[in-house]
Task: structure prediction
Amino acid sequence: MRIAVLSGKGGAGKTSIAVSLALVKGEGVLVDADVEEPNAALLLSPQMTSRREVFKKVPVVDQNNCDYCKRCAEACQFNAIMVLPGSVVVFDKLCHSCGTCAYVCPRHAIKEDEKPIGVIEIGVRGSIRFIGGRLNVGEAMGTPLIRELRRSIPKDSPFVIVDAPPGVTCPVVEAVKGCDYILVVAESTVFGFHDFTLVVEFLREIGVPFGVIENKRGLVEESLISDFCESEGLELIASLPYDSEIASCYSRGVPMVEAAWEMEDLFREILERVEEKMGC
Ligand code: SF4
Ligand code: SF4
Result:
């Protein structure tokens, strides 16, 4: 079973919830796919066993063979290559490594080079295996690194929790690929609610079963999330109360499940409900 934990915005508590679920399960794989702000290792504290660099392919133009016909630039749907009189410029950060420019170049003037974009770190804590990605500072695109992270998950893992990036961007789509169930973490604030509705729309479009965890219930008076779940017929898996002690534990690197004794039962129930939904 593969579960992704995501939220409409950062700070909703998804990483603490993903780590807590992994700890309650006590085995399996925890994947930190929030590669722009990876925090799961801070909360899980695994013993790191290996680290490797990840590269992406970027086009390199041999200007001696180029006649500046512009076919590469016309074919690139990401505007990542520009032809000027007498030179061709590649914008590495916009490039999706699709290879189209090299394919269409009539003079075979484009080769591919490898550029480092981040690292994958692997570690263990007890029977939990940790796999986390970290995007290099200034690197704009997390998708290739997340794709590589997914390939690093052992195929025979019966239980995988993915801490997905926040929002509804391409990296999120990549992170939730292959997941059987998604837990959406949302807080009942006006901003949190707006971002949550975008995630719901996105998940309905991609058609993966999902349930909602309302976090920090009681922080504000409104019950926007639970009311919305009720009116839209969404599965409200759990409501986690706001607790300033738990919030301060998070800032000290303590996951929710270890911040208060009663949280363990709550997370066990969440896991059981999801397993029940998946027929496990
Ligand atoms: S398609 Fe090839 S020849 Fe034409 S501008 Fe691009 S690199 Fe140069
Ligand atoms: S590899 Fe694809 S995205 Fe990158 S410059 Fe070429 S056509 Fe554009």
